Amino acid sequence: MFKSILLLLVASVLTSCVSSRKAPMEVDRDRAEVVATVIRFWQAYERKDLAALSNLLTTADDFTFFGSDAAEVVKTRPGWEELMQNDWQLFETIRFGEPRNIAVQISADKQLASIVYEVTDISLVEGKNIESLDRFAMTMRKEGGAWRIVQGMTAVATKGGSSAEVAARRRKETPKP
Fold it and tell me: Which one of 32, 38, 39, 79 is CB 3.0 to 4.6 Å from 10, fit for a cystine?
């Protein structure tokens, strides 16, 4: 499944870059590599493979990652590894769907990249499948020829709590004079 996702992502990234000032093939390759890094991240997360996940992180000391809870502010590799191990205690298995709303930016010197995207996941928790929509933002830096995650942020999207929906409910609930 992930091979087909990777193929689709690479194809969409390749076709979306034709208006760049850089040589289109360079931009396409960099964007495809950033997307491939994200896919390796999900695959390692699904397998609960801490070594593979940690290998995707920067080797420098400027790492920062925000989890979905206010207490999850991580600035070290050991702290991040603890966060992952805590996450994995919450579910038996997890499977990610196909990513969507992907946006990738590459710096002019091709050393920094940012990516935002969302992906559904189905987690098996206490024998029940629970579906959620996860949104991610990541900054990556090219280190030793590979894209490494320097910053990250995750959010679990709510349903029915958008500002438009809340405002509409308030209008209905407010008595008119």
Answer: 32
